[in-house]
Amino acid sequence: MDINKYKSHDRILVAVDCIIFGFDGHTLKALLIKRGFEPEKGNWSLMGGFVSKEESTDEAAIRILYQLTGMMNIYMEQLFCFSDVSRDSAGRVISVAYYALINIAQYTDQLQADHEARWFPLDQIPQLIFDHERMLGMAKERLQQKASSHPVGFELLPEKFTLPQLQNLYEAIFGMPLDKRNFTRKILELGILNKLNEKEKQSSRKGAFFYVYDKEKYSRLHHEGVKFI
Length: 229
Known about the structure:
Layout: E1 13-23, E2 28-34, E3 44-45, E4 47-50, H1 57-69, E5 75-82, E6 93-103, H2 109-114, E7 117-121, H3 132-149, E8 161-162, H4 163-174, H5 180-189, E9 193-200, E10 208-213, H6 215-224
């Protein structure tokens, strides 16, 4: 196709916005930053940026997540394309949103200070710029849908964890208590956990055994899908 035929069409900016979820052992949180430029300078925002002509939207999201978290190989999924004509008051911008899961303990205070970032519980989110509140709400719904049919969330936990810690995570994702006996039975039946001969004894005198997840089995079930919650 003759490239000159494109010249009659509008040039539109493409951005990516990243909804970053973290878990502190009790509460599911989202990482927000103070926007450093106009419009909406100084207001709370998702982390995002523009897609360069040398990269795909996936590559742009990976780059932006690394800049904010210092981490590679983050669990990340494309969420939705937001294309309302007036969504950005500065100009015509289409945004492809992604959601990501990270372990809060691996996120350093220095990175948090560098980007004026802060973790907010999902029930204490401040007013966000543009359509970022809609993005965050949609990402939470997608995470809940994913968790109901796939074993997800291990990216939010320490390398070794207890069954109560894992149940706390799922309760935080769904925002409701889960029956302990049913949860334990269902998660163990999946066969994705390996029990360690080591206990966590800070929470109780008896202690709870630590587990690690089997990455190969986890990956297979994650792609196949199972009815879990």
